[in-house]
Amino acid sequence: MAKLKTLASEQAQMVHVLGEAEAKAVVLKTQTKKLESYCEDLASTAEKLKLQKKVLDVRMKLSLAFLLKLSFHCTSKNEDYSYLFHLLELSCCAGCSGAEVQVVIWVVAQSQT
User: Domain of life of the organism in this record (predicted)?
Assistant: First the structure.
């Protein structure tokens, strides 16, 4: 009889431990789903940032090409270089990058010599 009580007590303890393990498994499964969701969000954000960088790079190159073509077109037809300073001012106001503005400054300086 004592052996049966001990066995029943051990069995109850095992059921309790098993219940705790199942509860931990549920918590871990939930955390896994959350982490997977965060990873997907991070991957999506990283992809968006890569695409934004590509768009900005293309925008810069196109803006630079436009400014250079415009400045060379104008210098070949006109001896008055004041328009280049307006071009420089417009490029700064239009939100051109520092590199684009430096190229416009260089074009202005070259046209003045």
Answer: Eukaryota
Taking the C-alpha atoms of residue 76 and residue 2, their distance in angstroms, rounded to an integer, is: 110
pTM score > 0.85 for this model?
no
Q: Say if residues 76 and 39 touch (Cβ distance below 8 Å).
A: no
Q: Are 103 and 67 in contact (CB under 8 A)?
A: yes
Joined tokens for residue 47: 């992809």
Cα 66 from Cα 107, distance rounded (Å): 13
Say what percent of the chain tops pLDDT 70: 58
Q: Which two structure tokens, joined as six digits, stand for 57?
A: 């790079």
Every domain of the chain and the residues it spans: 2-112
pLDDT in tens, 16-70: 999 999 999 999 999 999 999 999 999 999 999 999 988 887 787 777 777 667 6
Which tokens hold the place of 96? Answer: 């051109």
Contact (Cβ atoms closer than 8 angstroms) between residue 23 and residue 15: no
Give the CB-side neighbour count of residue 84, counting CA atoms within 13 A: 24
